[in-house]
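Q: what sequence does this backbone want?
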């Protein structure tokens, strides 16, 4: 099965397992990097975090499907996040946190092939300047 189909399948099964993974994703990100939590202090209603996660999910799906527009969005966000104090490699921790949450949600259903397809996808995104 091609990587694209594998990634899509993990998205569908994660959505079945959890309608709103955003809180889990931020818990995961802040567990890795507690220093990122205060960056969102101004986001009192969670609106920025919600919209950021949505953008990330669309970006992951878009790159998996070969959508050039999502590569441009990632590139622009990579640049703008420098202004929020998020450095080069740190930006990609958000995508890694999403992968980790999906892996947890799928539990024993998560296969070695799915691990590989996600590693490929995250590597492709990390290579977007
Ligand atoms: C560890 C990684 C990241 C951190 C710590 C982070 C942090 C932030 C912060 C603090 C803001 C609010 C900025 C402000 O309004 O002053 C923000 C906004 C945003 N981030 Fe991230 N970000 C990360 C990764 C990403 C990634 C990978 C994407 C996806 C391309 C992304 C997309 C966005 C978008 C679209 C917004 C604007 C949301 C809105 O206001 O509607 N971020 N981010």
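A:
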């Amino acid at each position: 099965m091609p990587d694209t189909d594998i990634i899509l399948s993990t998205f569908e099964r994660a959505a079945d397992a959890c309608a709103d993974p955003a809180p889990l994703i931020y818990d995961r990100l802040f567990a890795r990097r507690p220093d990122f939590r205060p960056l969102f202090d101004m986001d009192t209603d969670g609106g920025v975090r919600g919209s950021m996660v949505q953008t990330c999910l669309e970006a992951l799906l878009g790159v998996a499907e070969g959508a050039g527009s999502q590569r441009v969005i990632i590139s622009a966000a990579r640049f703008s996040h420098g202004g929020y104090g998020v450095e080069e490699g740190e930006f990609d921790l958000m995508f890694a946190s999403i992968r980790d949450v999906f892996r947890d949600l799928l539990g024993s259903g998560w296969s070695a092939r799915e691990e590989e397809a996600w590693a490929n996808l995250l590597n492709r995104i990390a290579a977007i300047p």
